[in-house]
Amino acid sequence: MAFKKSILYWFESSFWNVVDLVFPPTCPSCQEIGFRWCEDCQRVVRPLAGIPICEICGAPSEKARCNRCKSSRPGFVQLRSWVVFKHPIRSVLHSLKYHHNISLGQTLAWTIVPSLRQCNWPIQDVVPVPLSEERQRERGYNQAGLIARPTSQLLEVEYRPNALRRARHTRSQVGLTVKEREQNVRDAFEADPALVAGKNILLVDDVCTTGATLAYAARALSNAGAQAVYAFTIARALSHLDA
Fold first, then answer.
1. pTM (predicted TM-score)
2. In the chain, what are the domains?
């Protein structure tokens, strides 16, 4: 089964390579033709490795546990992100999320898997943070799913896109304060016990700002019987919202 998942990744990757030959892509961050995301732009991202962070939520912190995690532990065991949310990764994620550049999901999965493996999490299933039905219809796809599916193939574990759903439509988190973000996603998720009970889940999203969405999504998975929930995002916004 694991071998078949790996083969599936390479099959889909080959499909996108053929598409790239017919319709040459353009790097979202520097506009160089012929690359989904060029190597020069990949080299200038700012990894979060080496920055002092909270051991639980991954927010920048000089303490082992930040004040927020001390006062109220989130639903996940740990949350980690690959790089800081700034140029050029911002352009890449915006292209994936808003401009239907869906082949970037494969590119990003390949890029983050080495960092994920270094976490040494006992992952059995991969679950994307879901969109509401309304936003899914508007966009036509879930950008978290486009990253999570090839990630599951490379990790050789199950992909569970239906394990978690939005119980209600929520506002966009962009521009909201920490308190508003928490209120916006509180009780917004429901998980399927038949799919998650007793499992170690990897929850995947594109960007983390305060961690509120991931915390409540993880709580829903835990309430449905998941043994442990780990969370990973491509990027993390470093701002006053993380304080």
1. 0.90
2. 2-242 (3.40.50.2020)
